[in-house]
Amino acid sequence: MLTPKVILDVRGLLMHSYHRGVDPDARPNAEGKVINSAAHGFQNWLEEYFHPMLEHVSPVDIIAVFDGGSAYRTMLFPEYKKKRDEDKGKRDPDLVAQLKRLEDVAKSFLMYMGVTCVHAAGVEADDLIALICQGLKDHNMMVHTVDADLLQLSDERTVIFLRNQPQLEAYQDADGQAVPHDLIVLYKALCGDKSDGYPGVYRFGPKSWEHLVNEFGHDGMREIDQCFKTGDFEAVEDCLNVTKDKTLGHVYANIADAKLCYQLATLAPEVCFQFRGSTLVRPKYHVRVPNRKRIEAMLDEMECPAFIEKYVDFFPQFTLLTAENAGVCIDHFLDHLDETPFFSFDYETVDSLKHAAFNDAMSAASAARGSYVDVLSSEITGASINYGRHLQYTVYISVNHRDTANVDKQVVADFLETIDGTGKPLLVQNASFEEQITKLQLGLQLEKPCDTQIMASYVDEDGESGLKQMSKAWLNYNQASYKDTLSAAGAEDMSQVSGKEVLHYGCDDSLVTAHLFKTFYLILKLEGTWDFYWASERAPVHVLNMAFEAGVRIDFAKMGELATYGRKVITEGMLRIRELLTEHCTVENPAAGEALAAADGHNLRRIEQASGK
Length: 613
Prior knowledge:
Blueprint: E1 5-9, H1 10-18, H2 38-54, E2 62-65, H3 71-76, H4 82-89, H5 93-112, E3 116-119, H6 125-135, E4 141-145, E5 158-162, E6 165-166, E7 171-172, E8 178-179, H7 184-191, H8 206-230, H9 234-243, H10 246-253, H11 255-265, E9 274-276, E10 279-281, E11 284-286, H12 292-301, E12 317-321, H13 326-335, E13 343-351, H14 356-361, H15 364-369, E14 378-387, E15 393-398, H16 410-422, E16 426-428, H17 431-442, E17 450-451, H18 452-459, H19 467-475, H20 482-489, H21 499-527, H22 530-536, H23 540-550, H24 556-584, H25 590-610
């Protein structure tokens, strides 16, 4: 699963592509000025950057990062990028329109190719890229940019590409200075950065830097850099006492300016998660299931329709496995086994018992939603499995469908056992159901599957966790409902639907689960919760399912004792809070008092409800 990741600093790459060369089809605007078209920049960007990437990585492993602003550094230094922003305000309106169109189409194109697009309000792309590199530190990464600031991210797993050239040696600045990547921040802090608008140390330039390198070497510069990192400049003071170096003394005399510029030059992943006023800043993710029709429309708009042939292997392909083509389907699956980063699967079932009393006992709301399934009486009608390097293949195995050459459910078991043998993650939506069915129907115990329903609670504990709702919320993807699928086939249950009629509905769940997992994995990695999820959340489903099968002994007396204890803790706790408020808070706030009383009552009611009182 630790596939290499490619991170794109999108805006810089687009601007480089847009301004490269002259658009042969450009027409003068109303003022007679020739401006390149968005199509010119888009085609250049595809050919120079995007297409070469696809020779080495899958779109699902590309993360496109967009600028969200520069609130953090502007707060530190109001002149930060001020001139650049002023120059943007003077741009020709036709140029502004073309650049906006280019970025809008590129973002939509990337999403519908399966690329994850990310931005954070008020946060520069550089800082967000730093966060991604930090969170995915166990992956090999390639960062594509036009900005040398990102060279500070270079390490044994991360290669920075400037204008498509891998930066494996020291960076050569405009004055010919060779600057090691780990000294880029110090170099910019002392010499300044004209494009970003901060000056560095007064009257310190490349020649001064060269002097310090000649005097102290790169190792000595690293010691100076460490002083800036720690804020302790005792080593610099000791050096000055010995060497009396005037250039270093000049830096030390202007240390306040140098420290500010060092902070401006240093990437700050922590600003991607913080409060700005009362607003919580956090990354926003834009993800879609790859869609050929959408891509074709964008290529037509950007006047390069022939490029579609380069992308055909990335779009979803659904296949119905029956007794007539089982051998071919199985061979195809085995051929793509090694390249698949992870597998997802889903069952379609039928209630074999249809116990009237049980069904009548279901709540009206549950029955209306069709959300409750009697797992213990469910039998497999089919199973879908998603696989492939680009998550592009989904096979639906027909076991018990009308007018279909069904196969034995052992075929499903064979697929699952083969996947288990790879040691790669197996994904499901609602592991309790899928594991229960697998055990009862196939006699197999799933080995700690990843559950996107549980992962969703890590992403947003208050958000929807149903697959159809998450498909819409996260992927803007409308899945057909169970009821609509039955209605279209004139059926009462899944066994009365043919394999062809259920194909799209059946494959959708596995496809969507794979793309949700890809997204949630990234979010959990960036938020630092993935390791806990992986170690602690997958195994408990076994225990819960055992309790479901065998039943659970409920000790009502013990529950009553716990409820009494809970009421005591809350009552005593609220009394203590009131004592502290009375002692330390002197300003009357009736609204706050009412809210506190309401919370007190709410907690007590919850305990009483839980204990049945």
